[in-house]
Amino acid sequence: MTVYQWLCLIGVPALIAGVFKYLHGLIKRNMEDSKALKAGIQALLRSQMISDFNKYTEKGFAPIYARESFENCWKQYHSLGVNGVMDDLHKKFLELPTEAPDE
To answer: Which residues contact 63 (CB under 8 A, 6 or more apart)?
Structure first.
């Protein structure tokens, strides 16, 4: 076997291993980025729902448009991962009347 043949024999597996290592690094980095994006979006949705809950609880009612918005945020939040505290907040928000109490 010639030197060229030995280099070809050793070089191809090393090249393939290098490509796999590079691809593995890309996938791992992408997964970490996805986790960070998911956590960030979930935090923003949580913040919005808490803000809406506080606002409409103070008013004593939540109009239909506010309920729809809250429900949409909750569905997206819930799809990112279950959180018992927000489930309770969601339930309490839906218990608010849809019209202002007569004063």
So the answer is: 98, 99
